[in-house]
Each structure stands twice: as C-alpha cells, then as structure tokens.
Amino acid sequence: MSATRPHYPWSEGDALFADELNAAIANAGANAGASGDSFNLLNYIQPTDPDATAGFNRVFAAATALGRAAEVFIPAGIYTISALISVSTAYPLSIRGGGRTVTRINATSAGGIAIVLGAICMVSVSGLTIYNQSGATGGTGLSITSTVANNGPLVLSELRIGAQALAQDFIVNLNLKNISGSSIHDLVSEFGNVNTTGTHMVLEGDPTFPAINTKMVDVFLNKGGMGLRMGDGTNSSVQGVFITHMVMVGVGVGVKWRRGGGYLADALEIVNSHIDYAIGPGIDIDSVLNVQLIGVYITAVPNTSQVLINNPSNGVISGNEFFCNGKAGVTGINLTGTTSSGGLSISGNSFFGFNTGGSTPVVLGAGVSQTTVVSNGFPTSGSFVTNNGTGNFVSYTPLNVPTPFLYLPGALSVGGASGFNGSAPIAKPTVTGAKGGNAALGSLLTALAAYGLVTDSSS
Fold first, then answer.
1. CA nearest neighbour of 151 among 217, 206, 87
2. Residue 426 carries which DSSP code?
3. Domain encompassing residue 314
4. CA-based nearest residue to 105, from 138, 139, 141, 130
5. Cβ–Cβ < 8 Å for 364, 384
6. By the number of CB atoms within 10 A of the CB, which of 34, 153, 376, 403 ranks highest?
7. Residues 309 and 376 in one domain
C-alpha cells in the first residue's frame, strides 16, 4: 500500500484506501457521502496520520466552497491538530461529531477551531470534545465570530472544551462574538486547575453587531478564573442572556457582565442554577437593566460578595439560597451605585450562617433606592440588612420563627379587624364593667385574650 497520496480530496471510490475508509466509517456509525452536502473528515485524512491539521483544513475548505448549506462530520476517534483550524463561511454550516465521549480533538498548539461568519447563516456544532494538550496556556478552544449584524441562530450542544492536565489551559474555552439567537445546551467546560486567567465562556457584541438572545441550558463549568464574561466594559452591546441549570464549581468569578461605552446591556435571567465556592463574587454585574435571579444556590468563600450588582435598574432576586456557613466578611446580596439606582425586589430568599464573622445577608448602598426586601429568611442574630439608601422598604423574617413578623421603622395603623398570635381577626372590642370592682378587669382580660395578646388563666 502506498503511503503517499497523489491528490485530495479522496473520492469514495478510491480503490487504494476504500477498505480502510469504509471500515472506519462503519465503526464510527457514519454514512459518508449519504448526501452531496455532507463531508466526512475521514475522506480527507489518512486514518493513521498522527497530525490531522491538514485534513481538517481540507474538509472545511470543501464544505465552505460548496456554495450552500453543508455538514462536516467528524467520526468517532482521537484527532490531533498542531495549529488553529480557521473556518470562514457565508453559508449555513453544521459541524457534527460522533458524540462527546467518542470524538475528541487534541490541540497541541494554542488554539482549537475558529469560525468566522461572513453572512447571515445558521451554524451548529455538536458531539465533540476539544482539549488543549499544548503544555502551555493560550488560545481559544472554540471561537465563533460574525462580521455582519443579526447573524444566527447558533446551536451548540453536547460539547466538552477544556484542559486535560494541570497547566494546559486555553485562555478562553468558548468565545462567541456578534451572534444573535445563540442556543447552548449540554456544555462541559473545564480547566486543569484554578487558573486565574482562564475563562470558560466569553459573550460579546460590537455596538453595530450586538449579541442578542443567548440561551444556556445544562452547562457545567469546573475551576478556572471566570465562568461567564459578558461585555468588555468599554465598547460592547449584549442584550438578553437566559441561563437555566448552570453549575459552576471552584471558579474565580461566576458570572461577570460589564456594560460598555454607554451601549445597551439589558436582561439577564439565571434560574435554577448552582454556584459553588466562587473565589470572587458569584455574580458580578455592573449597569445592567432587568436582572432576574431565581432559584440560585450560592456558597461562599471569606471576604466576598455572593451577588454584587453596581447601578442596579429593575429586577427580581427571589427564591435563592445563600450559604455563608460562618465565613467572615461575606455579603449575600450587595447593591451599590449612584443616585437613583435600584428598583429591585428581593424576596423569598434564604440566608444561612450569616450570624458570625461580620457577614451580612443584604447591603443596600447609599445610592440605592426604591428597592424592597421582604419575606426573606434571615439568621437568628446579627445584622440582617444594612440600608444606607433612601426610599427602600425592608422587613425581616428570621429563620427560627415559624410565621413572618413585620418590622417597620415608622408608625403602623391597621384600619380593619385584627388578631395576634394566630387568633382570628376581630373588630375593636369594648371594655365594660365598674372600675371599682373586678368587672372592668374581667372585661379587659376577655378583650385582650380575644385579640390573642394574652392567655387569661386568672381565677
């Protein structure tokens, strides 16, 4: 068998390598050439080639030259690439592996796959593992960038991106820029260690090409310097990020969003997610409109804020669980900002272990206003809420009290019937009887007992 090839791509009828190709395709469960728009990687590489870089470049060149929608199929196997794979397309493109557990790309350089979209088109990437094996930190595992506005949708599913061993990390595992309508489902992103510079996901949008409507479901992020970063704080527009079932373990900062250059940063929703022992804030947001955090479980490390929102503007923080576990200097929800920041509703949250070490469940900064803090479960002692703002409404519900009680800094007037300690509400009673005897005293005791204020055990 000849070890060299006279031309590429290989045809399906190539007698020299037909048996090897067909066996590899069958073992991978593939159907190479089933459609003229489907391109199988095994048709463009030698099965025993230790470096698949040239084969990847050839298969993507063939697919993007088709002039219409195309699929690149990467069968089960371990493929080594020694350079970044760059793909440019103006047509819909699907990159499909045989499955995250069986199709793996090992990058021995500082990059994995970079896709540039030159026209509005759909792109999907699924069923792959991309690992950095370069022995050094650098590059991006999977990068997708659009050069036109309103580009999408983008579908990413069943992917694993990251590092195989210590000190072998991409700088960014997944980088998305200027994409509208991204859907990310079943993503595992990991770093070999707690890398203070590595970021799992970056989501950015140029002012003229904003990143709009990004949905993430079932995402697991392990270690690394930052979980999800949105915006660059200077010249970026990101709108509409919706996250469900995201788990972060041991990251530096969980979610960080910075509004850039006065451009719109609007709508963040995190639901039913878990942020475990983030070294920095679990959620760190600056000047983002309409934030909703619902059903989020956050544990703490000392001297940090679990949720830090600067210049908040409308939103809901509800049904979350904040665990301090006696660590010092922890703030559960920390709102800061300039005058007229606020408009948040903080309710139905539970705060555990905040009664030692100077930790505080909720801090409302001097510029925060029109924020309500009601019906939350607070510790049994210590400072519940630090309210330095104006126009905020705060009430307390200690965890050790079976029914809520209301604390108001001012006067309270109840216009209708009322009751206390579980007694049925009654109208204002009248005390009768002579003051010279015990009749008036008996009438007063009866009235107080009816209100629920005393138990009359007198004789």
1. 206
2. B
3. 300-409
4. 130
5. no
6. 376
7. yes
Residues 347 and 435 in one domain: no
Which of 340, 329, 344 is closest to 285 using CA atoms? 344
Enter the tokens of residue 185.
Answer: 């489902």
Element (H, E) at 218: strand 211-222
Identify which of 345, 338, 355, 250 has the alpha carbon closest to the alpha carbon of residue 299.
250
Q: Which structure tokens are listed for 218? A: 């079932």
The reported pLDDT for the residue numbered 324 is 86
Does residue 457 share a domain with residue 395? no
- Length, in residues, of the chain: 459
What pLDDT sits at residue 85?
93
Q: How far, in Å, are 60, 153, 186, 224, 390 from residue 96 at the CA level? A: 12, 16, 14, 27, 55
Which residue reads 């555990």 in tokens? 352
The tokens describing 456, both together, are 């009359």
Q: Considering the domain boundaries, does residue 454 fall inside one? A: yes
Would you call 304 helix, strand, or coil by DSSP? coil
Question: What's the CA angle centered on 419, arms 418 and 420, to 5 degrees?
Answer: 135
Give tens-digit pLDDT for 44-101. Answer: 987 677 899 999 999 999 999 998 999 999 999 999 999 999 999 989 999 999 999 9
Question: Could you check whether the bond before residue 9 is cis, i.e. omega within 30 degrees of 0?
Answer: yes
pLDDT band at 401 (very low <50, low <70, confident <90, very high): very low
What is the SS3 assignment for 364? strand
